[in-house]
Amino acid sequence: MERLRMTSPDLTRANIDKIAALFPMVVTETLDADGEPSRAIDFDQLRQELSDHIVDGAAERYQLDWPGKRAAAFVANAPIAKTLRPARDESVEFDTTKNLFIEGDNLDALKLLQESYLGKVNVIYIDPPYNTGNDFVYSDDFAESSADYLERSGQKSDSGDRLVANLDSSGRFHSDWLSMMYPRLKLARGLLRDDGVIIAAIGDQEHASLRLLLDQVFGADNFISDVVWQGGRKNDSRYVSNGADYMLIYAKNEAKLSELGVRWREPKVGLDTALAKAASIWSTRQSDDDASAQWKAWLKSKKSAGEITDSVARYDQLQPGTGRPMNTYGNITWPGGGGGLTYEILHPTTRKAVSLPKTGWRFQKPEMDRRIAAGEIWFGADETAIPRGISFLDDTSEQVAISVFEQDRKAASTDMRNLMGEIVFENPKDRRVLARWLRLVTGGSKDAVILDLFAGSGSTGHAVMDLNAADGGRRRFILVQLDEAVDHPDYDTIASISRERLRRAGAQAKQAAGLLGDDVDFGFRSLHVATTNMADTLTTADDLVQAALSDAIDSVKPGRTDEDLLFQVLLGWGLDLAEPIEIEEVADRRVLSVADEALIACFSRDVSDAAVRAIAARHPLRAVFLDAGFATDAARINAEQIFREVSPETEVRAI
User: Fold this and answer.
1) What is the pTM of this model?
2) 74-265+402-528 has which fold?
């Protein structure tokens, strides 16, 4: 039962609704008296709509703007007092894997990763919330000072809830979504290599906004494609079945891709099967016509079943005498309105000159003669037909991708059910589709680093494992997923679902690969975004290793392990978080050595001269100690002196 409204009607809102019905293009979003985004009317635009001449107004420029944009840009640059804490018990092959799974807010994660992965990522894939009116918006506070933000970012609410409602009835429906995306895209761009690419999946609701936003962050010149993924049909739709999702693809620097001569190609689907079938038909043919009829019928049936694509199906003829699948529709005439080459070509049977195309021939006569001799030119029954070019299916195994494809999304849900025993995540992305596009945009590179900021069920990580299992690659993934709560007896967060999927997918792929999978990485290091390890300090990860040894203070929080401290040091020094870590005893002290002694850390509370000298004797590039581990100032000064004498090249710090 509806409740009576105990106030007078909001006439302003009612009038805005009436104007919006007449002139939807004048409706915008602005800040109200309390600084909150709300629905409003652009009066300059309304004046223009009601005028028969151009109305003077504010200077016009092409841009995407919304209430809160400046605050969103600010939050991208605001420092945070956070770190990443390792969770060995949640990880798989922690000591050897190069893959990372980070649980926490991706804005925090992006800031923490800036030093370690700046300019190192090949592909960023994002599948952000589609802004359907459900709870999704990450609770970034865009209206606080830098100091307030720093203080808040070091804490977590009692409820742990990081989501706020963004209902489509809200005046800030689009503004909140854009403010959530803007800082994340700005930070993500910095992680890409110069030849890197971002793929952003999106639905109809924010497709237009996201493209404008990507134009702004990455530059319109770096737009590559707007790929349409037709994932199903909705027969209950009132007007049109909007079953499509989109993948907006941008390069960080398209000019760099062109300079490198990058061309994206993918294997032709069903090529080997088609060539084998053509050979079988040809070997048992009753006649050339019979073979061609069988071949066309087979192509038609397989294309309808989705087992081959048009890139194979268009080779619908078998060459007389050889049985090679061929296409005879190549255009060999001059492109454009004239100016082509004019010379005589004789029909091979009638020996009369064939009809000359109006625009002339495309090739010089020696090249045309070569193609005719090689059987690469098709002739009609007589000289009245203009010849065409012939291409053969077996001449190339790859094709350029097209910007529209079909793949039923139900397959991904079935895949999830088969792996997990139930569908524990609604609408997972199809790992096969992701694997295809990840392989395509990396040029098949087997060493690519792939980052997914909205990991969801972990489809991207699963896809990377599939690719590596197929070709023995060493691709790496970095997945980030918010610790969003779920109502399930076995999983408390979406992140826990994703980790379990990765465990099962890795084990399944490893078993299927057998001995070939021994060298493939099916593991991941689990990390959590957490408050800084430093107690009662505003020290950030960037500042952690900058203090001189003699100036350091004892500021480590209780309960933090030496591995917790190590990972914050790795972040501060900009080292790869997946580098191998060896734990050993040196002079009866526990020591952590990273990446063949690129860094040696000793966080003992009682650092002896013998331990310091033993570490220095190994000549690490960097060494770090716990300041409280030195009993006296003299012991600290003595440690510095030991390194100056034994390993002066080592950079020494303390926390």
Assistant:
1) 0.81
2) Rossmann fold (3.40.50)
